């Protein structure tokens, strides 16, 4: 039961660390420090405060291996969505190579100059009713306030611009490409790094061979004694 709880807590920590690493990059370092401290505390507890544990043989960690593999795939998808959907990485990339000064061949200005203004849409609000949007052709009929907000909207009728759809398409394309590349790298690394190292397998086979030889020697010795 204690071993099950230990593996469960480790899997939960691994899940939070890998799934939300893009949102909190410091999590792996904190997890490492926590594990180092926990190992030392467990060692003191097992050596000085508790009775000796009874060791049990097992080939692997059982179903936890498949759970960790599923969490790894889920972490790739989650981090791809965080980077592609919620961050400014894609809008900045699209502006740099499609709408910015460098897209038109200008080398005298920075490629990201004007990015903030490009991400802001303009709305005309009535001073009498703050919830009412006024179309630009009606601004002479009302006492209005000009407001800026973050969105890709047409100033004439507040419809979504083509830049919005381009950014959205690039976001989803990035998520799909990111998850496929990272998952492929993950499976390649898993293929090159076996679950059981060759050295450990050889030692286990040698140990079994030695045991068989010892049992055969004992059987021969018993038969010769009977004769």
Automatic annotation (TrEMBL):
Major place of residence: membrane
Topology versus the membrane: Multi-pass membrane protein
Keyword Amino-acid biosynthesis: no
Domain Anoctamin transmembrane stretches: 10-206
Keywords on record: Membrane, Transmembrane, Transmembrane helix
Statement: the UniProt record of this protein carries the keyword Acetylation: no
Residue stretches spanning the membrane: 19-41, 61-85, 164-193
Localisation: Membrane
InterPro entries linked: Anoctamin, Anoctamin_TM
Family: Belongs to the anoctamin family.
Protein name: Anoctamin
Record organism: Characodon lateralis
């Amino acid at each position: 039961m204690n071993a099950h709880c230990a593996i469960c807590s480790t899997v939960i920590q691994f899940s939070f660390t890998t799934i939300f690493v893009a949102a909190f990059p410091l999590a792996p370092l904190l997890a490492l420090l926590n594990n180092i401290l926990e190992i030392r505390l467990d060692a003191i507890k097992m050596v000085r405060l508790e009775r000796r544990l009874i060791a049990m043989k097992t080939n692997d960690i059982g179903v936890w291996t498949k759970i960790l593999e599923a969490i790894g795939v889920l972490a790739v998808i989650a981090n791809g969505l965080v980077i592609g959907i919620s961050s400014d990485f894609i809008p900045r990339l699209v502006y740099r190579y499609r709408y910015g000064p460098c897209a038109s061949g200008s080398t005298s200005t920075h490629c990201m100059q004007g990015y903030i203004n490009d991400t802001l849409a303009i709305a005309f609000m009535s001073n009498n009713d703050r919830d009412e949007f006024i179309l630009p052709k009606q601004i002479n009929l009302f006492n209005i306030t000009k407001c800026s907000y973050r969105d890709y909207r047409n100033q004439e009728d507040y419809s979504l611009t083509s830049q919005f759809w381009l950014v959205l398409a690039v976001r989803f394309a990035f998520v799909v490409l990111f998850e496929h590349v990272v998952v492929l790298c993950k499976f390649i690394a898993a293929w090159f790094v076996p679950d059981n190292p060759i050295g450990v397998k050889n030692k286990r086979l040698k140990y079994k061979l030695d045991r068989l030889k010892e049992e055969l020697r004992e059987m021969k010795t018993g038969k010769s004694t009977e004769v």
